[in-house]
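An example makes the point: we let one protein speak, the chain in one-letter code, the fold tokenised, and here it is:
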Amino acid sequence: MAVDELKITTAEHKSRIEKIQKQLRRERIEALYLTNSTRILYTTGFAHIPTERPLAAVIPKEEQPFFIAPYLEYDHIRQECPIAGEVLTYPDYPGKVHPMRLFARFLAQKGLASSKIATDSMEGASGGYGYRGPALPDLMRRAKFIAGRDIVDNMRLIKSRQEIRLLRESAKWSELAHNILLENTRAGLHDTMVAIKSSYDALARMLRKLGQSYVQMKIALSPVVVGFRGQVGANSAIPHAVYTKNKIRRGDVLVTEAGVEVGGYTSELERTLVVGKPSSRAERCFETMLNAQNAALKEFRPGVRCSKIDEAADESIKDSALKEGLRHHAGHGIGLDGHEPPWLDPGDRTVMREGMVFSCEPGLYFPGYAGFRHSDTVVITKKGMDFITRYPRELEELTV
């Protein structure tokens, strides 16, 4: 990867395409038809905003990938995706002729009318934004469509050196953002105001340092997000809270999140804070949560089933009263998506392999009181694991 380029290289995207084409030829599939924006980004490097207008990247078993897209995306694809071959366009959705009928016509023109086609959407479109339309297989009855999302998703399980580098870069700036959050956090302020100021300050510092080497690949108001997302005081007991009406008060337990998107990849860093001197109850819950995370972290290594991580975290909690605070599994895969397979869950028997990247985040939640969760991003190495996020985890260092 070039020193001045914080995104996946064109060469790596070409390598991914070649791997897909080898699998297509091996399984006698003529083409892979993709509609999901993350899968399109992973395979081709093209980042776009999915809307009601259908868009597809098609990877034939031999030829260069081509796109079928609304006309408004034509110049975007030409500018951002050097590996794209032909770009076939339609005027707009719903149009005088529905786009999916034009998709069927375009695929026939490319010699795929009677072919075996793998796809991540039997509808032919990613959907959303109120999209409605005929299913592509109903318009191409001579073709055979088969489920194909695992062709890409299985490749995404093992991260390349470039992907891990981007995740480490993300973590570096997430740690800075979290430091700024701690500096800005105090009783009497609304968590949203603290988050907006901290995110802005961290973004400004990052852009001053990285300059034009930084590339934002995903649509967001800011590629730097640090704050509490409503996980303040009693509301911290709601793992996926959205907001709170209350300002930060002394004695509150806060659960933070810090994420910075770099080249499409975002690491995950979360911490539990206490405002003012922690109570004995807060200390006990915090230490139990931290013990659970430590127990889980000890189990990360090649050859271990994902279910073992969750089991280790649960077994570390001896107090039955505190065990009632368990609300979710111990973590998940992470990369282009904030949550992606495999899952650190009793029902996931995936065996860990070198290059897999996970969040490790066993949490405890007590309705009406508080929630306690740290989350770190880790990568599986040859002999064990390595932290991608490196940030203080002890209560003394996380008392505001």
User: Anything to note?
Assistant: The mean pLDDT is 96.
